[in-house]
Amino acid sequence: MTTVTITQVAERVGVSVATVSRFLSGNNVREEDAIREAIAQLNYRPSAAARNLKSGKTSTIAVIVPDIANPFFASIVRGAEKAAGEKFMVLLVNTDGNPNREERILTQLFGRVDGVIMVPLTEDEVAPTAFGKFGFPIVFVDRISKESHEFDSVLVDNVKGSRLAVEKFIALGHTRIAMIGGPLDSTPGKLRRDGFHAALKKAKIENNPEYFVEADFNQVGGFAAMTKLLDLDNPPTAVLSANNLMTIGALEAIKSRGVCVPEELSFIGFDDIEMATLLVPPLTVVSRDVESQGAEAMRIMINRLDPNNRLSPQHKMIDVKLIERGSCSNPWLWSSKDSKIDQGSKKVK
Amino acid sequence: MTTVTITQVAERVGVSVATVSRFLSGNNVREEDAIREAIAQLNYRPSAAARNLKSGKTSTIAVIVPDIANPFFASIVRGAEKAAGEKFMVLLVNTDGNPNREERILTQLFGRVDGVIMVPLTEDEVAPTAFGKFGFPIVFVDRISKESHEFDSVLVDNVKGSRLAVEKFIALGHTRIAMIGGPLDSTPGKLRRDGFHAALKKAKIENNPEYFVEADFNQVGGFAAMTKLLDLDNPPTAVLSANNLMTIGALEAIKSRGVCVPEELSFIGFDDIEMATLLVPPLTVVSRDVESQGAEAMRIMINRLDPNNRLSPQHKMIDVKLIERGSCSNPWLWSSKDSKIDQGSKKVK
DNA sequence: ACGCTCTCTGCAATCGTTATCAGTAGTTAA
DNA sequence: TTAACTACTGATAACGATTGCAGAGAGCGT
Asked: Which residues belong to any copy of the HTH lacI-type domain (chains A, B) (predicted)?
């Protein structure tokens, strides 16, 4: 109710506020026991606001994500929280992928946090030049661009991820390999496409532009893109989806068309899905340790905040691996008699 | 770098800090344009810390959940964020279901937030008596207990939820109906069990203690509980799981045993699961609007924070409904010849 | 007794804002 | 002309903590 201040504690014990303050910060004081008791009696808690003002530190780090309900971002946050430990609190903020909101949030955050860990949806959500003015360090997750040299970042090996998937398809004998890609103005969208194309090129598979559909990293986009692929005259026999939400959408499209996985279509998703093992068949995915990516971002932030360090921008790369479950098979496993998608010959042209 | 203060803005324009402050709070001032420009030039942002100290308000509301990576809690947070709008920021904190951490967090939060929205895992995570001393209002989500009359809360109709599921099973002809329950020291765990038993009693179905397994609201617990049920001499033909994580665990157990749903076993989960439609068969669930539950909690909090209101504790109840998909069927649909679970006669005793 | 270090103390300034208060014009009313 | 009102202003005291400073004792060696 009535907030109790350090002054009241001091009065009760009969010492100065300075002494109580020193006790609070761990110094030896004579009336130690009395102070401890007075604090308990009065139920005193130091005001964070006053401390912040005096010290200029908040012991708070914001994590900004486009959508906390996406399990992927939730895991990042969780990793960051764990790495923050007792020293820092985590202030979580959603942007809803809305650039205006993002800008406003960054402004509001001033004086409230010591630093920001940010997972942007696209690369230009916030004008790059705007960053310098916010006055706190920023660690980017999954984002790299021109000004990247100025900022810390934690990236994932997007190119390798796509490559692993494509190589898997190729090893099984697929040649009609398609990708449902993310927005090309986002780092993951761009790099995952690059990895896809690079792997195809390396295997000397002709690049069929119809086999790359750019979508929006959302479920509906994945559904639409997959539908488009299934409607091609010569549909692919293997599909890589560039993120978890689009994977779900794509699987819905596949299911609604009655296409069988993996007999008629091999499928790999980028980023693991909770319950991937429960799907029929279990989904093969390109996976990374998302929690540790969040943790790594927090670790970098904490280092940056330490005034003893004057580090140059850090760039950490998280590895990916292919987790094989049951959604891929050889393309010739199925007979074409009643397949809904094999209407052409296996050899194009 | 060097933080710019209101004083510098005032100096540059040639007015007093009071005038700048007034401009900031929306009053008419003569040098309006000059101030605006100076703020932009100097890139000045008011310090939240100083404002907090002066006003005693933080415009921040904490949402405390056991695990943000659980999509269910993520949705609560999201709803709360939406309802918070521009006026309040949301500070998210995980407890990891750890009571010590919970206590510590509540302490740390003092002076940092205006109020707390809390989703506790069990009812006694925090000593009820402890709450009075934290000095900010608390809105509970999914929790009710002795001291409930003192605190606002947003509950879900747990009893009805269980009842809907059981009635569905009964309507299909099931009599061997089991439940994988949550911890009985939690509000949802207790009430969902109560609803389960009440519905059975109403239908005059004998209460078989073996058909209620208390688990931990986690995936592994769900797996173990389901395994236990399948191992019974006279296993159930219909199972209700008390939350989403246990549902996933239970489905894994079912799958690993090769039991067919819904032919051999009807299944209903409490709380919807993302991708429930993708499962084979699509999962029938008891669902509520989780986002709106979070939003409702935030709305109550904002009202409580308004000094004009002197409200008695609010208790809002969120409705539930049964979403029928494909995981339930009549128990006699299947023949017993090769079923892995029907070893007894359909009629018990 | 004297100086010296050591440990602890209280005073007071300070962090960046906002709110109170007492002005100072300028306008209008009587 | 004076009074009353309006519309703004600047100086200054808070808000609740931390910290530099000077000083008070205590302990010790000479």
From this structure: 4-55
Mention the CATH class of domain A158-287+323-333: alpha beta
pLDDT single digits (tens) A133-151: 667 888 999 887 665 567 8
Please give the backbone phi and psi of residue A32, each rounded to the nearest 5 degrees, phi first. -45, -55
Distance CA B255, CA A277 (A): 10
Would the CB atoms of A92 and B90 count as touching at under 8 Å?
Answer: yes
User: CA B289 from chain center: how many Å?
Assistant: 10
Burial of A99 (0-12, 13-18, 19+ CB in 10 A): middle
Classify residue A129 by burial, with Cβ atoms within 10 Å: 0-12, 13-18, 19+.
exposed
Cβ B191 vs Cβ B156: under 8 Å: no
B279 contacts in A (CB within 8 Å)?
275, 278-280
Nucleotides of C under 7 A from a protein CB: 7-12, 14-20
Q: Determine if strand C comes within 7 Å of the CB of A29.
A: yes
| CA A33 to chain CA centroid, nearest Å | 48
Domain A60-157+290-319 annotated CATH 3.40.50.2300: yes
Q: Residue A58 CA to nucleotide C5 C1', Å?
A: 37
- Is residue B231 classed exposed, middle or buried when 0-12, 13-18 and 19+ CB atoms within 10 A define those classes? exposed
* Domain boundaries defined on chain A: 6-46, 60-157+290-319, 158-287+323-333
Contact predicate A262/B264, CB 8 Å: no
Separation CA A320–CA A101 (nearest Å): 32
Contacts of residue B347, defined as CB under 8 A and 6 or more positions apart, other chains included, come to none
Q: Which residues of A touch B68 (CB under 8 A)?
A: 68, 74, 77-78, 81, 92
Q: Say if CB A110 and CB A55 are below 8 A apart.
A: no
Residue B110 and residue A248: Cβ atoms within 8 Å? Answer: no
**pLDDT of res. B344:** 39
> Crossing angle for the helix pair B32-42 and B6-13, nearest 10 degrees?
130
Using C1' positions and the CA of A30, the closest nucleotide is C8
Please tell me which residue of chain A has the smallest CA distance to B2. A135
Residues 13-52 (A) near nucleic chain D, CB < 7 A: 17-18, 21-22, 24-25, 44-47, 49-51
Over the stretch B135-194, which tens digit does the pLDDT of each residue have? 788 899 988 766 556 788 999 999 999 999 999 999 999 999 999 999 998 889 999 999
Q: State how far the Cα of B245 lies from the Cα of A106, in Å rounded to an integer.
A: 35
What are the φ/ψ torsions at residue B61 (nearest 5 degrees)? -125, 130
Using the structure block, give the residue that is written with the tokens 């506790």.
B120
